[in-house]
Amino acid sequence: MKGIGVSPGIAIGRACVIKNNKAEVTGVLLKDEAEIAAHIHQFDNAVSLSVNEIEATKQNTDIVLHEEDIAILDTQIEFISDPQLRDDVVEKITTDKKNVNDALIATIANMVQLFQEMDDEYIKTRAADIQDIGNRILKHLTKSTPGFTQEFKPGTIIIAEDIAPSDTITMDTRNVAGFATQVGSKTSHTAIIAKAKGIPAVVGCGDNLATIKDNDIVILDGATGLVFINPEHQLIEEYTSKKDTYTSNSDKLKQLKDVRSVTTDGIEIKLLANISSADDLEDVFNNGGEGVGLLRTELLFMDRDSFPTEDEQFEFYKKVALQSKGKPVIVRTIDIGGDKQLPYFGLPAEQNPFLGYRAIRICLDRTDIFITQLKAILRASIFGDLKIMLPMISNIQEVREAKSIITQAKQKLLQANVTFNAAIEVGIMIEIPSAAITADILAKEVDFFSIGTNDLCQYTLAVDRMNAKISHLYDPFNPGVLRLINYVIQQAHQHNIHVAMCGEMASDPLATLLLIGMGLTEFSMSATAIPAIKDILINNDTIKAKDIYNKVMAIDNSDSIIQFLQENTV
Ligand code: PEP
Ligand code: MG
């Protein structure tokens, strides 16, 4: 079975299938005022028992509560004590003469539906919180106990349709080796809590998960999302050895967090992270990241009905700036178009969206959108070390035009007496071949380059990065791509500007020494990839890296390059 791997690690154990004891509507109607009063009283009583229970969980010193757990519990208390919830239930009891059980089930079902109909993916997943508080109150009404309170045997893999937020907190997870659920997404609570507790988890496995029975042997890979049921002995052996390697590797890598990122001959290599919001920063610092090499701002524009206002954007960038502990944060201006569409913007369908109206091209055309974003970034720039990065640059005119719009944004702020960092650095992504080939020209116009290998590969090799059929041609080790990357790095050095790489290649361990050999000293990648790259560079020197670089540049095809790197890296 394949689901979404949301908390990495491998679990091998026996299934414990937890069925949701769904509350049933009884259909019994209340007869008189006395019954009505009694049922309202039962509801109030169940509400206070639920709040007390949550408070007791918060006070219970046997349970290790993470920040996320406390936030969930506090939100639950807020929901449970919401007068609107009581009004809705009481109305159904008094007007419709529903018994308290049926009134609560109906009220919760309405609220869950409201949340599920929201466009925002995050808010959608909060429907689980509503269902959860409903179940909690119902539990106190019917005095039933849910299956998650049991004590599990060592090595248990929990199989469930979904796991309610409160269950993930109060469940005794000491013997839980993994979670697999039928529903859920990367932002679901099972995912957040499993990650915080370091328990491998796969969500969104679909209805097939219901075929698993108690005590079935299950292998679960929380990175790839694969779940095997009653596997052959050979597969168990294979995964046992993967599990051992994973455990010893992650223990070793965790210890690298505070180790300085320098090669054995003392060359400092900056390891930065690619993020999409302030929420990602905790992970960055936990993995030893030294700042943000790419803040993708598209998230702020997606999952909404209209463009975010300047103030909304300002709050978003300010939060990132404040939480970045004074480390540099490179904010990339919007990179919409191509594969990233905004439903409310009404971008016309194009024959070749990746070659079309995208990123800086939209910004230079719709200067209103661009100036709003630039003003918001500039306003936030006094709260941290923010820099501006322009995506999809193909020629110098675009850079000059964008810089003049940045000047206009600054002038507007000056006129309004708003403070900002006037000396904010401006850099560009090098992700179009023409930009790479003219790196000598562009370097004179900007403060830094960041090489976006994801797009640079697709444009250099004429391979659509989304097309699985031709994915074998999508190859950063193609000598053509390597020559472009090398040229960009050399030109940045010659013109004394910073150069980093923020495409996926920066997190490929096979490429690390080759890139250092080219002279690259700044890498930006997803936070969890940082320790593995650090592990390579702190165990090697630049003499070896240079040697690898010289030999690779003399090889004429990528298969041989990859083979050479496999034999000579690590
Ligand atoms: C890139 O193209 O390498 C890059 C980092 O940008 P994105 O993947 O967001 O297009
Ligand atoms: Mg790109």
Fold and architecture overview:
The protein is of the alpha/beta class and 570 residues long. It folds into three domains: 4-20 and 148-232, Glucose Oxidase, domain 1, CATH 3.50.30; 33-142, Enzyme I, Chain A, domain 2; 270-568, Alpha-Beta Barrel (TIM Barrel), CATH 3.20.20.60. The protein has helices at residues 33-59, 67-80, 83-94, 100-116, 121-125, 127-142, 165-170, 189-197, 233-254, 281-286, 298-301, 310-323, 359-365, 367-380, 396-415, 433-437, 439-442, 453-461, 479-494, 509-518, 530-537, 542-553, 558-568; strands at 4-7, 10-18, 156-160, 176-181, 201-203, 217-221, 226-229, 270-275, 292-296, 328-332, 385-390, 426-430, 448-451, 498-501, 522-525. The longest helix has 27 residues, at 33-59. It starts with a strand and ends with a helix. The mean pLDDT is 90. The structure holds phosphoenolpyruvate and magnesium ion (MG). Magnesium ion binds at residues 391, 431, 452, 454-455.
Oligomeric description of these chains: single chain
CATH top level class name of the largest domain: Alpha Beta
Bound molecules: phosphoenolpyruvate, magnesium ion
Largest sheet: 8 strands, parallel
CATH topology of the largest domain: TIM Barrel
Largest sheet strand order: 14-13-12-11-10-9-8-15
What low-confidence regions span 5 or more consecutive residues with pLDDT below 50? none
How many helix segments? 23
In angstroms, what is the radius of gyration? 27 Å
Could you name the key traits of this structure?
570 residues, Glucose Oxidase, domain 1, eight-stranded parallel beta sheet, binds magnesium ion, TIM Barrel, binds phosphoenolpyruvate, seven-stranded mixed beta sheet, alpha/beta, 13% strand, Enzyme I, Chain A, domain 2
